[in-house]
Amino acid sequence: MHTLIKGIPLTLGANTYTLPPASLGTLELMAERLDKINEAFASGANFSHRDLFFVTDLATACLQRNYPELDRAQVAQHVGLENVIDVLQMCMDTSGLLRQKLEADAQEQAAQAAAGEGGKLGESAGTASSLTS
Question: For residue range 10-19, what is the model confidence (pLDDT) as tens digits?
């Protein structure tokens, strides 16, 4: 298996995939449709059904960077109204900021779990306070 491109975990059915951001080639091929989506976001307009279906095409292209064997039908079966906007945002995570935030949140949760109920990791149990007059 090849090294996966960094991305965001996306669960489709019983499988979790690493969804990398869109490649420049994908952005170029889908630029007109992406511009339409961006305009809708900016203006607060509603999306058409075709706009929503486009997210399946975009997500499939992104996932195929890591999983060339994955086909559109598999993606379409598991991207629904409950996650379509999240999937779109994951695909457009061009700077990696969303992925980095999710990774940082996971690390913080792990640190809190390791610290237990006794306080936060790295804090001493008793710190003397300075006297004031």
Answer: 999 999 999 9
